[in-house]
Amino acid sequence: MKAKLAQLKTLLAEKDDLDKVAALLEWDQQVNMPHDGAEARGNQMGTIQRLAHEKLTSPMVGDLLKELKVHAKSLDPDSDDARFIKVANRDYKTAVKVPGDFVAEFSKITTLSHGVWTAARAEDNFSIFQPSLEKIVDMVRRYAEFFAPYDHVYDPLLDIYEPGMKTSEVQAIFNGLRSEQVALLKTIRNSPQVENDFLYQPYDVQKQWDFGVEVISQYGYDWNRGRQDKSAHPFTTNFSINDVRITTRFLPDFIGSALFSTMHEGGHALYEQGVSQIYERTPLGGGASLAIHESQSRMFENLIGRSQQFWSHFYSRLQEFFPAQLSNVDLDTFYKGINKVEPSLIRVEADEATYNLHVMLRLEIEIALLEGNLEVKDLPEAWNSRMEDYLGVTPPNDAQGVLQDVHWSSGLFGYFSTYALGNLVSAQLWEVMEKDMPAMLEQMSRGEFGEILDWVRTRIHVHGRKYDPQELVQQVTGSKIDPLAYMRYLTSKYSQIYGF
Amino acid sequence: MKAKLAQLKTLLAEKDDLDKVAALLEWDQQVNMPHDGAEARGNQMGTIQRLAHEKLTSPMVGDLLKELKVHAKSLDPDSDDARFIKVANRDYKTAVKVPGDFVAEFSKITTLSHGVWTAARAEDNFSIFQPSLEKIVDMVRRYAEFFAPYDHVYDPLLDIYEPGMKTSEVQAIFNGLRSEQVALLKTIRNSPQVENDFLYQPYDVQKQWDFGVEVISQYGYDWNRGRQDKSAHPFTTNFSINDVRITTRFLPDFIGSALFSTMHEGGHALYEQGVSQIYERTPLGGGASLAIHESQSRMFENLIGRSQQFWSHFYSRLQEFFPAQLSNVDLDTFYKGINKVEPSLIRVEADEATYNLHVMLRLEIEIALLEGNLEVKDLPEAWNSRMEDYLGVTPPNDAQGVLQDVHWSSGLFGYFSTYALGNLVSAQLWEVMEKDMPAMLEQMSRGEFGEILDWVRTRIHVHGRKYDPQELVQQVTGSKIDPLAYMRYLTSKYSQIYGF
């Protein structure tokens, strides 16, 4: 049995190599690739992804798993080997349910749709994108059918990003959250407002870069195992636990974008760098789920990076970088400015108080599309009316409305809710951290993050994909994902800033 | 038969994807990869290379080729399809002769040896490297035996880089060349010397970069299909005909290094960018051989880039970039300075008059090692005595002698002579170009390279690997590779510079 386990590990190590190679192809495309290299890159990506899929779904993997699943029953269910078999089996079962032809067709359609969506957004014309999106929704439904029977048609999609999570669970969480978020927003909007004009000035891009590097270095990002580059859309990727890279976008007239996105991607990168080295080249490498990943990025971006303590240490340093812009802005004004709440049209620019509302809107629309209660052609109307309900703003056009996000054109249905769930988890973890580390806030105000990193590392990062996300949250916080901690966090923070 | 050809093309297109992916893994390792990413990268490279080898040597490829070879007899032997079958068959036959186990073992040994060589060179201690090199020479001999019977044990190695070329041919060429090069060097050394101190001053690296970009842009390098980066050792690589990248190393106190290496890599890149688009993802993509490749890089570096005409256009521009360094250096002094001949220890720094002598020395040593007429332990002595004979200099240590080049530690036997052959071919082409394009030198002195690029593009670049190197040279120049044109070029150039 040992030999069979070793054989499976070798096969899946090679599968992991191919996945990592695909990630490098993607990173290079976003960061370096010259314009005309795209067609060849598409072919290379197709070949690598097909080989990876073939490797995972090979009869040999299936046979080994069948035998090893029996063997696993005699193992400690929490041992690495038992979990390795469990996670590998889950990956295998998901992959074999989806025919290779479907994967190829879906990949082709979404590649084409991406271009169509770009054009539709540029021309602010939803009808250009509508036929593509109809095809994608149709294929997404077909994808779900491969996993029938299911409790809810949306479950197989959610499961891609949040293993083990059910649609009904997310709906229950969001139902509890929605009215509270809307009410909090109303309270904030009825309070005296804060200023943040000073964030919108010319800020030298190289200095923005240098300050961001200082911050994430202080967080504990290991530059021997990573690097930073510029790209149109910030992201984190990794080709190994020892090669975890982030990208950042710099706006020359607004410091908020690069500043917080560097911290955000830094949080993702700390997670990947913190996975146990023994999980390298195994299915247990990587993050437990997108929500858990987002809990780390949002923690280092918001709970730490937008806190009073953080800036009581870093603000004077930022002023040294930008004396002309900030010497007349005091710490309190700066702190309030970076936490200004303003209902806005664009999710990626949303503040902490409104962000989740953007996500809920998308989740409801996705579920309605999948259930057949909403047609693609009626999307703009459904979008705009929900924007009015939840945020009190109406998009002046579809480019700033239903066409704003890339996800649907890439076939990423089931993805959005993980952004909000990540926020909730970050606050749940934070409450435990405050109890476990009474000196934590004081350390932050001295620019010390060693104990914080050690805490998330030993409780979250090191485990990689060993535990399901809900299981992991339960294990660390004593409860499943719920919205209470996040609402406590928001209320406490904004009541202080807005004085209510 | 059409269907079988299409099937083979599909299989080899995927093999090409894997080769290109391996090239990206290598490029990223040299240019971007953080230090600790090396181990994972080694695994990924191993997996991709094994899959590429499996793809090429699969029984399906063998069966298709067997049938298509018969079919090819009814085709025009110069048609793309006939040549596709011929080149694919050659690649296949070479690959199947070498067992996969040998490939894996060789890869492992050379990977380890690279580190050993680095240490040996750093410590200037050949005996550290000796055991590794003995193993490599042994494996290289075993490699040759896979191709027995052969005319000469060195033939299978040479054939990797110069398809169809025989050791006896190279020896005949070099035998004719050696005494003439030594004699020319003596004449130059007995003439009044020229100065080049002004090249060794602080030169701002960004400005060096910008000037190099101007030059290769003017040459015709297409930035929509390429990019430049910095790396420890300059090189050119490509992931498609439409994604051809160069790297350059910049020395802050010597302008000669980056200046000419940018032109050199630019020449390689022009070749790859000029291959016919219909050869994309086929075995006919890429350069005909290393010598033909080097003929292009050396042409744009030396015949063009170190010519009077080139600098009569570009020198005033270079002076604008570096007024403090060059305003007091006149064009003639600069031209002579960049062409200064000085026997030196290091091949990569050698001038045009001494470069080939460095190569001959290596070729003779490689052949003697393969023939068994020289033992690895006696290498330093063999090296130093030849340096004295050919160049009149003796290395003060092995780091600047036998340990200077990376090639042997990487198992690259059979490679060196292509550097010298490329020089010879560049001059042979040049003589035809001067006849075909009477206005060529005048165009160069106006900074115009369009007709030159068009000439090499239609006669060399566009054909990719369709023709064997000797066949291609014959076709374009009317004779095989020979040293006469190169000696005429050197004699004419240096007699003018050194006044003999």
Explain this structure to me?
The structure is a homodimer of 500-residue chains. Chain A has helices at residues 2-31, 38-56, 59-72, 80-97, 100-122, 126-145, 155-161, 167-189, 205-219, 255-274, 290-303, 308-321, 323-326, 331-338, 355-371, 379-391, 417-436, 440-444, 450-459, 469-477, 484-498, and strands spanning 226-230, 236-240, 243-248. The first copy, chain A, is mainly alpha-helical and 500 residues long. A three-stranded mixed β-sheet of chain A has the order 1-3-2. In chain A, a hairpin with a 2-residue loop joins β2 and β3. Chain A is globular, with a radius of gyration of 23 Å. Chain A binds chain B through residues 13-14, 17-18, 20-21, 24-25, 28, 32-37, 39-41, 43-44, 46-48, 51, 222-227, 239-243, 245, 280-281, and chain B through 13-14, 17-18, 20-21, 24-25, 28, 32-37, 39-41, 43-44, 46-48, 51, 222-227, 239-243, 245, 280-281.
In whole angstroms, the N-to-C terminal distance of chain A is 64 Å
What are the segments of chain A in which pLDDT stays under 50 over at least 5 consecutive residues?
none
Q: Give the biggest sheet of chain A.
A: 3 strands, mixed
How many beta-strand segments of chain A? 3
Strand order across the largest sheet of chain A: 1-3-2
Question: Tally the helices of chain A: what do you get?
Answer: 21
Portion in beta strands of chain A: under 5%
Quaternary status? homodimer
Radius of gyration of chain A over alpha carbons?
23 Å
User: Could you say which overall geometry of chain A the principal axes of the C-alpha atoms support?
Assistant: globular
Average of per-residue pLDDT values of chain A: 96
Largest interface: chains, residues each: A-B, 38 and 38 residues
